[in-house]
Amino acid sequence: MEVGFLGLGIMGKAMSMNLLRNGFKVTVWNRTLSKCDELVEHGASIGETPAAVVKKCKYTIAMLSDPSAALSVVFDQDGVLEQISDGKGYIDMSTVDADTSSKISEAITSKNGYFLEAPVSGSKKPAEDGQLVILAAGEKALYDEAIPAFNIMGKKSFFLGQVGNGAKMKLVVNMIMGSMMNAFSEGLVLADRSGLNPHALLDVLDLGAIANPMFRMKGPTMIQNSYSPAFPLKHQQKDMRLALALGDENAVSMPVAAAANEAFKKARSVGLGDLDFSAVYETVKVVEHSS
Ligand SMILES: NC(=O)C1=CN([C@@H]2O[C@H](COP(=O)(O)OP(=O)(O)OC[C@H]3O[C@@H](n4cnc5c(N)ncnc54)[C@H](OP(=O)(O)O)[C@@H]3O)[C@@H](O)[C@H]2O)C=CC1
Ligand SMILES: O=CC(=O)O
Q1: CB neighbours (10 Å) of residue 69?
Q2: pLDDT digits (tens, 9 = 90+) for 76-101
Q3: CA distance 23 to 1
Q4: C-alpha span between 156 and 134 (Å, rounded)
Q5: Is any atom of ligand 1 closer than 6 Å to the C-beta of 11?
Q6: Which of 65, 128, 177, 227 best tests ligand 1's pocket when mutated (most atoms within 8 Å of CB)?
Q7: What pLDDT band is residue 232 in, cutting at 50, 70 and 90?
Q8: What is d(CA 279, CA 234) in angstroms, rounded to the nearest whole number?
Q9: Which of 5, 8, 11, 76 gets mutated to test ligand 1 (max ligand atoms within 8 A of its CB)?
Q10: Which class is 168-284 in CATH?
Q11: Which atom number of ligand 1 is nearest to the Cα of residue 95?
């Protein structure tokens, strides 16, 4: 099966590599075309533009940074829309808001194409290990067709109904994750300033009711001030911003998420946006110093 893949960042590279390793023929495109080279070494073909990829493939997957990138790849010159047609599918796995997803869905379906949004939960390592959680919504027939690919990229796929539901579920999850990361950072700073060993705090947390893979994985590297990007902080802040907008629409008060968003914004403003989202810890430390 020939599958298209647009966007070879941290996630897209790992996901498309898994498809290749598991017998899919994959045609890739990335805005910075040189990032296609490693995939080509593993057997991928290159499409010169998103339109060229869609022309060649029955369905095409996208994994792009944010709403503006997702819209640009579909609507701009040489974009997806130029070649989408009867029976072709487009699956956007980027984390975007429901409005963005709906705009793309309407454009694709107006050309008789099929659309599925399918954002994922899980970071660089789960993407490399084919252990993502896939939150799909939209055209059920395309979901069924994509299951063999989803089973390679993920450990579990959910079909959540109409377009927008996948995007909303992803934003709710990441709003919780971003708030937790801030609480965790504050806890590490509080332990340290109170004269406690932060490693002991990690051990205690890991044995109690709030043990979780994020604290387990990020805690040791945060203590070492090491923030090699798995999930870039600028994307986590984008997700907080979009989740807060969803809260506005639904009149849901989210003071904890709003405070966490401010911390991520602060981290971006001091140049930490391309580091892992756990680098918000650096900002929390500074705030604590100045108070
Ligand atoms: N990293 C993670 O842990 C997770 C990320 N996500 C979500 O997945 C998506 C991708 O994340 P990730 O791979 O980490 O991000 P990266 O920043 O590593 O990659 C972003 C990708 O988007 C492309 N891109 C950015 N702007 C444009 C544009 N205007 N036009 C075309 N392409 C563009 C980049 O191209 P170029 O190489 O040219 O810059 C690159 O391929 C995001 O929505 C993120 O929120 C979801 C779950 C986990
Ligand atoms: O979106 C990020 C993740 O870890 O999931």
Answers
A1: 18
A2: 999 999 999 999 999 999 999 999 99
A3: 8
A4: 6
A5: yes
A6: 65
A7: very high
A8: 11
A9: 11
A10: mainly alpha
A11: 43
* DSSP string for residues in 132-156: EEEEEEE-HHHHHHHHHHHHHHEEE
Name residues contacting ligand 2 (CB within 6 A): 95, 121-123, 174, 231
- How far is residue 186's CA from residue 40's CA, in Å, rounded to a whole number? 44
Query: Which 8-state DSSP code applies to residue 94?
Result: S
108: CB partners within 8 A, 6+ apart: 74, 80, 81, 84, 90, 114, 115
Going by pLDDT thresholds of 50, 70 and 90, the confidence category of residue 288 is very low
pLDDT digits (tens, 9 = 90+) for 128-154: 999 999 999 999 999 999 999 999 999
ipTM of the complex, rounded to two decimals? 0.99
Q: What is the distance in A from the centroid of ligand 2 to the CA of 123?
A: 5
- Classify domain 2-162 by CATH number: 3.40.50.720
Q: Which residues are catalytic?
A: 170
- Taking CA atoms, 58 is separated from 27, 87, 267, in Å, by 11, 8, 41
Helix (H) or strand (E) run with residue 45 in it: strand 45-46
Burial-class residue 272 by CB neighbours within 10 Å (0-12, 13-18, 19+). buried
Nearest listed ligand to the Cα of residue 94: 1
Domain coordinates of the chain in residue numbers?
Answer: 2-162, 168-284
Number of alpha carbons in the 13 Å side-chain half-sphere of residue 222: 29
Q: For residue 290, how far is its CA from the centre of ligand 2 (angstroms)?
A: 31
- Do 2-162 and 168-284 show the same overall fold? no
